[in-house]
Specification:
CATH class: Mainly Beta
Distance between the termini: 32 Å
Strand order of the largest sheet: 2-3-11-8-13-6-5-4
Bound molecules: 2-oxoglutaric acid, fe (ii) ion
Number of helices: 7
Largest sheet: 8 strands, mixed
Number of domains: 1
Shape: globular
Helix content: 25-40%
Length: 372
């Protein structure tokens, strides 16, 4: 089994802190590297139809494509994923309503600064994924797992990133101010949570593990999600090799959790960095959801699955909306390198790590308040 059990969260904190600092160094090295031999110019599209088949061979066929994508690009689109179109359209529409209809004073009332858990409204330039050298233009609304949002009802043992369980920590807008908001979010979140569990079964197959290998690790999973708004560009510019963008929506970064499922509207903006230093636009695919490997899964697979650097630059005169879910396992699990990613010639490169603490230490580096 990959987990080595549950321990008090303080144990292993030092290693997750140094892991967070290592990750920052890794990011800097990726941003300056230009000479890797493996590279890519496009992002694969994986049709999930066969993943829902009762035939294991069919499911393994999809898992093989996932393995190929994760060992090379670290990003792929999924289509035929089963989330109804109207649920997706509705959540993007709610994002628009949140930023346009909710009065500023109500946004302030649920400002992220009131939260110990990075939840609530986050204005532009409040956080920065890499070192605060440029102000990020995005604004966001952040929330996380609640038992009531989980269609399975969970196992009632949810803990936050720091291992505590304080009860409800999400900061929601008042129903009277944004009618239907909680319901619409809840519908999408439930769907995308279940899709993430489905994907984890495919990830297990893709890593030559039993299909239910991760099952007991996602009974109260971490799942931070956001509505993000990128303002229209003041000075729209096409993507160029010169990399001299003044308006950065979200700076270059890797994600922290196991994997991310990202719904984006019809405006491009997401760009991913190929190993030889080219930014590739992850154009929206009709009915598609973007999936990318996060650093926690990269570590867990001993570096076999790639966590790829990406950023967002809105190059259009239209605003852009997106909704990522950062799917993690139960935050109180401690994991060590997956057995199928180890061999005599390839010993573990990473020490055991607590799922929540690792993410917390990464997130804490993105805000200046010093509060977290
Ligand atoms: O908005 C997007 O397209 C990407 C968002 C993202 O990369 C993130 O929130 O980590
Ligand atoms: Fe990201």
């Amino acid at each position: 089994m990959a987990t080595v059990g549950k321990v008090p969260v303080s144990v292993g904190h030092e290693s997750s802190l140094s892991a967070a600092l290592e990750a920052q160094k890794y990011l800097q090295s990726r941003l300056t590297a230009t000479s890797e031999t493996t590279s890519f110019r496009s992002i694969p599209i994986i049709d999930l139809t066969k993943s829902f088949s009762s035939s294991l061979t069919d499911r393994q066929e999809v898992a093989r494509q996932i393995n190929e994508a994760c060992t090379t690009v670290g990003f792929f689109y999924i289509t035929a994923h089963g989330i109804p179109e109207e649920v997706c359209n509705n959540v993007l529409n709610l994002a628009h309503r949140f930023f346009h209809e909710l009065p500023q004073s109500s946004k302030e009332a649920i400002h992220m600064k009131h939260s110990n858990h990075f939840r609530g409204y986050e204005p532009a330039a409040f956080s920065s994924v890499n070192d605060f050298t440029s102000k990020e233009t995005k604004e966001a609304f952040n929330w996380g797992y609640e038992t009531g949002l989980d269609p399975t009802g969970g196992d009632g043992k949810y803990v936050e990133l720091d291992g505590t369980s304080e009860g409800a920590v999400n900061q929601w807008p008042q129903e009277s101010e944004l009618p239907g908001f909680y319901n619409g979010i809840s519908k999408y979140y439930g769907e995308v949570l279940q899709l993430s569990r489905h994907l984890f079964r495919l990830f297990a197959l893709s890593l030559a593990l039993p299909e239910d290998y991760f099952e007991t690790l996602m009974t109260h999973p971490g799942g931070i999600a956001r509505l993000i708004r990128y303002p229209p560009s003041i000075n729209p510019k096409p993507l160029s090799a010169l990399n001299e963008d003044e308006e950065i929506g979200l700076g270059a970064h890797t994600d922290y959790e196991c994997f991310t499922l990202l719904l984006q509207d019809s405006n491009p903006g997401l760009e991913i960095l190929s190993p030889d230093g080219h930014w590739i636009s992850a154009e929206p695919v009709n009915g598609g959801i973007v999936v990318n490997v996060g650093d926690f899964l990269m570590r867990w697979t001993n570096g076999v699955y790639k966590s790829t650097v990406h950023r967002v630059v809105n190059r259009t005169a239209k605003e852009r909306y997106s909704t990522p879910l950062f799917f993690s396992i139960n935050y109180d699990e401690i994991v060590e390198t997956l057995p199928s990613c180890l061999s005599k010639d390839n010993p573990s490169k990473f020490p055991p790590i607590t799922a929540g603490r690792y993410v917390l230490d990464r997130l804490a580096l993105t805000v200046k308040t010093g509060k977290y």
